[in-house]
Amino acid sequence: MLAWLLPFAGCVVITVLRLKLSRLSAVPGWIGTGSLLVAFCLSLFSAGLWLMTSPAETAASSVSAEETPGIQAAKVGDDAAHETGYSPQRRLVGHWYSLAKFGEIDFPLGYAIDALTVLMFVLVTMISLAVHAYSLVYMADEQTESYQDHHLDHSPGETPERPGRFAHFYAALGLFTFAMLGIVLANGLLQIFIFWELVGFSSYLLIGFYHERRTARLASMKAFLMNRVGDVGFVLGMTILLVTCGTLLLYPVHDLNGNTSGSAPMALPEAFQAAVEKVVPSEENHQPTDLLPSGQGISYALLVAAGLGLLAGCVGKSAQFPLHTWLADAMEGPTPVSALVHSATMVAAGVYLAARIAPLLLPEALLLLAYVGVVTLLLGASMAIVARDLKLVLAHSTISQLGLMLLGIGVGAWEAAIFHLITHAFFKSLLFLGAGSVIHTTHHEQDLEKLGGLRAHLPLTSLTMLIGVIALSGLAVPYVTIFGESLGFSGFHSKDAIVSGAMAFVLKNPHHILLLISVLLGACLTAAYSLRLWLKLFARDTPVDPALQQVHEGPWLMTWPLVVLAFFAAFCALGGEEGLVSTLVEASLSPAPAWFSGSTDEVVSIQWTNASDRHAVHGTAGAMALAAAWLGALIAWALYGLRAISSKDLSRQLTPLVRLASHRWHFDTLYRGFLVLPILNLARHTAWIDRILIDPFIDGCARFSERFSHASQWFDEAMINRFFDNMASSVWAWGLSLRKAQTGHIRQYVLLATMAVIVLFLILFAWMPGGRAGP
Amino acid sequence: MSLGAYLAVSAVLFASGLTCMMTKRHALGVLMGVELILNSACLNLIAFARYTSLGIDGQVFALFVIVIAAAEAAVALAIALNYYNNFLTVDVDRGDELKR
């Protein structure tokens, strides 16, 4: 919990302090990094606690059952967590605060902690810590009063200068980390959505960090809008779920003994299953109207739509086809940001959510998801292989890897997808930070054609990036095992898992063979482009460009994150699917819903697979994936390493394809033509209508009301004021005349009073008949 | 002695008190007139208590009148003192400040 709040605290502190500190100071960076370091230690500590408590839990002795909640409650460190406990999947769920309550429907803010959450906490804080430390150096040139932005297009003769924004950068980075941890921690879709938007917003800040550049402004706007498109789907999906299931909680709240309290509402998965079971038999009986009570007309299509809506959110956030174009443009942000936000964590949020809600997805939605993933995988890979910009290669590679993960979810292997997410986070942030190291030392040179032969000058960067590249392409030495482990880096294991998932799926459903072929093709392409990247950057001993002779490694703050990430990229998946990480992931995700039990689904006729099916084909799938990867690697080696085949000849042969891919398959053009331009036109016409029709009307209204008020002012002055003035002056005159009676002489008053009494008596005796009765 | 005699004395007291109030310019003289008037009223009450069915009530009332007269005298003397402090005179005809 504290780990979650610390980045936020860091962000707040920086925001406050930036007003007082000079722009030259590095203090904001140290605050941000320090808070992240503590957060990382805390999450590591809680992960350790989690692991330690887990055997005790399996022992299920009464003593440990009593002890472990206590430890966990201590770990949470939050006395307000009044409802903690276990589900069969070992999950810590609770509420902090009820945001709103509308009748039956409650929107609480709470948390759901399970193995996956702990794992993601460690992951996010670690990568964020690495990026924070790295940025201390990378962004050091922002610590100035007048930062000169050489990428800014400006009129000649004028040097663009602006104050540095070091503190700004760290504030945004801290905010982002906080939001990401919030997503991971949240229980309930609404809470996820809140942090989801916060992530989007901080990403917007970070992409548009160099907001003097037009490209950066456009890119941040594009990313924000593309995400909104997906979020519309998210909101729609949430609404449908809320209407049909009556809750947005992902997991039920337990009390300390593990019993759900009597009034606790059903969590989403159970409620959703109930809704499905209510609908599906009705379709079999062909009497849908009889079984559905009026006013609660849930149809099967609506439930599918809910899943699709949520998936639209994931697709937007994870930059999947057809909303993938924003991620490549997001590379306008500083490179450490790309490493943290646009490769490792933010885009992974989509996949994370997809895996969390996977039990809510009906077969149609999953199938669509699989195909979306495949299309994205191939598109991204093909774009990456022709991209000339260093960061662009990595961006497209991220897109395609995310496609692979969604494919994994689509074929039902969501443990494999999350597994790949984690390994991918390590090696992709490693690659980005390595790229940042190159960019930093070469003074913002990103063109692959101009770079090259940097190995001698950047030995550490080149070595760590080689590890990242191998992990990304999933290469391994076949048939060699050391200590019972196959000799491969993390990407090899996780990609294997997904490929075997896809293979098992295809074996059961032969008419979706396209999925498997595409995955293998994608693996081949991945190996090719990642090796191409490395060879272009580092192969050969001397730089191509004499201007690059002076490059050198950065200080330790830049290199150490690389080394740490390289270590994890290499070894975090040790043990493959039986390893620690994978087991933790598997332990936390929901079990497959009923329709995964192997039964043939009526609507799309798909046979779903389960873990044992996947395990059966694991060896074959691994071999195929490995073969594909080696094929790709060999191609890349032949093209760029040995130069056995001239790459120029090859690209000439494939001109149309290359041109298509290097224009990013014209998606931007398409969107511009079909969406952006019409909307701009619409906006222009609306503005015209505004000016021609509405503005005169409003002006007329204003003028009329002005005239009217003039008239009423005249009326006030001439009639009403005069009347009241006259009245007041007459009252005044009357009062003056009365004043003369008040002489101020007491004796006079007494005389008058006496005379008045005598007169009254006289009147009394004169008129009252009984008063005459004298003595 | 009959009721009429008491009432006659009371009336004389009342008239002289009233005359005193009306004619004296000295503030303390006015106060003495007030005392005379109060005492005439007191005498009336006692007389009615003695000769009619008013009984003990009249005497109690007379006690009240005496107490109130004492309080009034205290307040009035304080006013007179302040009056003298402000105007350096005790002539009531000079005190017409409020009129202005």
Short description:
Chain A is mainly alpha-helical. Chain A has helices at 2-17, 27-59, 62-76, 115-138, 166-185, 189-207, 214-245, 268-285, 288-291, 300-317, 325-329, 335-344, 346-356, 363-386, 390-410, 414-441, 459-473, 490-508, 513-538, 556-571, 580-588, 611-616, 618-641, 647-653, 655-662, 667-739, 746-767, and strands at 92-102, 105-113, 147-148, 161-162, 476-482, 485-488.
Would you write up a description of this structure?
- The complex is a heterodimer of chains A (775) and B (100).
- The radius of gyration of chain A is 36 Å and the shape is elongated.
- In chain A, 67% of the residues lie in helices and 5% in strands.
- In chain A, helix 2 (27-59) packs antiparallel against helix 3, helix 13 runs antiparallel to helix 16 (414-441) and helix 16 (414-441) runs antiparallel to helix 20 (556-571).
- Among the domains of chain A are: 411-646, no CATH class; 684-742; 745-775.
- In chain A, the strands form three sheets. A two-stranded antiparallel ribbon of chain A has the order 1-2. A two-stranded antiparallel sheet of chain A has the order 3-4. Chain A has a two-stranded antiparallel sheet with strand order 5-6.
- Chain A has 775 residues and is mainly alpha-helical.
- Chain B is mainly α and 100 residues long.
- Chain B has one domain: Helix Hairpins, CATH 1.10.287.3510.
- In chain B, helix 1 (3-23) runs antiparallel to helix 2 (27-51) and helix 2 packs antiparallel against helix 3 (56-87).
- Chain B starts with a helix and ends in a 13-residue tail after the last helix.
- The A-B interface holds A 739, 742-747, 750-751, 754, 775 and B 4, 18, 21-25, 30, 92-93, 95-99.
